Amino acid sequence: MDTNVADLVRNAASAAPEGVGLRDPASGRVVTWANLDELVDRAAAGFVSLGLVAGYRVLLAAGNSIEFAASYLGALRAGLVVVPVNPRSTTREFATLIIDSGPRVILADGQTVDRIRKAVAGLDEANAHGQGPDVDPKVVVLDGVAVGDEHSWSTLIAAEQAPAPPPRDAEALAVLLYTSGTSGNPRGAMLTHRALLANISQVANNDGSMIGPDDVVLGLLPLFHVYGLNAVLGQVVNQQAELVLANGFDPVGTLDLIEAEQITVLPLAPVVIAHWMSEVTADIDLAAKLASVRLVLCGSAPLAPELSRAFTERTGLVVHQGYGLTEAAPVVSLTLGSEHPPSGTVGALVPGVQVRLVDESGSAPESEDAGEIMIKGDNLFSGYWPDGADGPDEDGWWPTGDMGFIDSSGALFLVDRVKELVIVSGFNVYPMEVEDILEELPEVDSAAVIGVEDAITGEAVVAYLKPAAGAAPEAVKDAAVRHVEARLARYKRPSQWHVVADLPFTATGKVRKGMLRATERRRALGLLD
Questions:
Q1: pLDDT at 417
Q2: Are strands 138-141 and 20-24 parallel, antiparallel or unpaired?
Q3: Do 168 and 4 meet the contact criterion of CB atoms below 8 Å apart?
Q4: Are residues 464 and 519 in contact, defined by beta-carbon separation less than 8 angstroms?
Q5: N or C, which end of the chain is more exposed by having fewer CB within 10 Å?
Q6: Which residues of 344-485 form beta strands (DSSP E)?
Q7: Residue 189 has what DSSP assignment?
Q8: Cis peptide before 330, with omega less than 30 degrees from 0?
Q9: Helical pair 270-279 and 305-315, crossing angle rounded to 10 deg
Q10: What is residue 511's predicted lDDT score, i.e. its pLDDT?
Q11: Are strands 371-376 and 398-406 parallel, antiparallel or unpaired?
């Protein structure tokens, strides 16, 4: 029985050593399963040569690449804990994640290494003055030139020291994936090998064929995200399929890649379909470009039913959807296996996952009313870093913060979220984090951040600002725009700004965000300027 996710690579190398595992069209490189297994071994040995032992954290800040996959799996084989983070994070965001997770090694590619260097230098300076955390990570440059005491990828995998046998404890921590708890700053969800392997098995055992050994899968979803990491890479390795890596999306360029590589399985975020439908003109035959595709999977955020129908009418391809969360590793339900899923559903539960609905009192909702979705299964996380707080209860149930209902056929429907987080292009944005940064400005008295529907990104971030005394409204907005550009990754930045004389507060001093959302709905209907 597999107890380490990296065991799946060993299995693939044994069963299909010459089968293509990873293909990187940008560089022209092709890696067989035997090649990948060797790379994983060499990466594991490299981590050992750097003095890392089981349980140490390795932060991975890079785009989709062969090196990402090999270093991720190599770290797991060495018994380490991988912390995949968004490579588009700002220096400040990197520093926050480094402080929280305490990695001994940071792997960065050419697009991220300068920001990583600045983040580490800031920590080093603070440590020198006795003001910083006790964090002193080594930096490994995956595809660039190492400087100073940094290491390159080639020197890491050149280590001759044999890796220690991987721990055989499926409950060992495998990854920390930063997401939200209820609100506020991101928290590290602690996913064990058991959780990751369980969800890979659950999806593989689901009715319908998601990914098989003859499939060529597009690796467009970012590997730092749980969907790309476990629902795509994990499934590909488990099924010994082929993964074609794409580091970035271009509406027409990605279609050309799909056609050239004869992609058969297309895991996407809704934003990709939205861009195709709005930007790919009628003179491009979208159906012909996607002629090799047998299966389209859409996750990470809800896909509007009308967008799904329009895509199907134009291409003839049904879009299968799913529901999941980082804390569930990630898949909870899939429409795959249902020939004609009801409009708006996120599918039936995958085998091994249980769901129950509860109302505000913790009881089952009356009749067919919606309730908060509670989930249970071996794929669940072990709580939030570092102490396992807010994990599943003693009976194994965990509240998702999402509202939904289940119809008579067992299909799950989402209707709302209890949590305030905003999902932009499949990525979580935490209003409190954005608000805290805006309120750093002397020009801002208070800030409130909400999400609104957006045809392209699913949701967009909207900021309401109350100026400090004497601050001119335009000066407030200009200062805020400059500030978030320096402090936040692009997807977290507000795309709409409203400077108001006052914010609506409850009697207990909380901003009445429901009132702000109602204002935005009226604005969308053209009832407000």
A1: 65
A2: unpaired
A3: yes
A4: no
A5: C
A6: 348-349, 354-358, 371-376, 398-406, 412-417, 422-424, 427-429, 444-454, 458-467
A7: E
A8: yes
A9: 60
A10: 80
A11: antiparallel
The predicted pLDDT at position 419 comes to 64
Spatial separation of the C-alpha atoms in residues 400 and 198, rounded to whole Å: 18
Among the CATH numbers 3.40.50.740, 3.30.300.30, 3.40.309.10, 3.10.310.70, which is that of 422-524?
3.30.300.30
Query: What per-residue confidence (pLDDT) applies to 418?
Result: 60
Helix (H) or strand (E) holding 270: helix 270-279
Helical pair 113-128 and 91-101, crossing angle rounded to 10 deg: 60
Do 70 and 40 form a contact (C-beta atoms < 8 A)?
Answer: yes
Spatial distance between the Cα atoms of 350 and 365, rounded to a whole number of angstroms:
23
CATH number of 32-191: 3.40.50.980
What DSSP character marks residue 326?
A: G
**AA identity, residue 478:** D
Domains 32-191 and 422-524 share a fold: no
376 CA to centre of own chain: 21
List the chain domain ranges: 32-191, 422-524
What pLDDT is stored for residue 89 in this prediction?
A: 92
Of 46, 252, 44, 226, nearest in space to 234 by CA:
226
Structure tokens at 288: 């012909």
Distances (CA, A) of 175 to 98, 149, 190, 497: 14, 26, 6, 36
C-alpha dist (Å) from residue 416 to 230, 345, 422, 468 = 26, 13, 12, 34
- CA quadruple 351, 169, 68, 29: dihedral positive or negative? negative
The list of the chain residues with pLDDT below 70 reads 126-132, 161-164, 166-167, 180-185, 207-208, 338-340, 367-369, 416-419, 506-510, 527, 529
Predicted TM-score (pTM) of this structure: 0.85
Q: Report pLDDT for 508.
A: 45
Distances (CA, A) of 462 to 5, 19, 332, 506, 509: 40, 48, 29, 20, 21
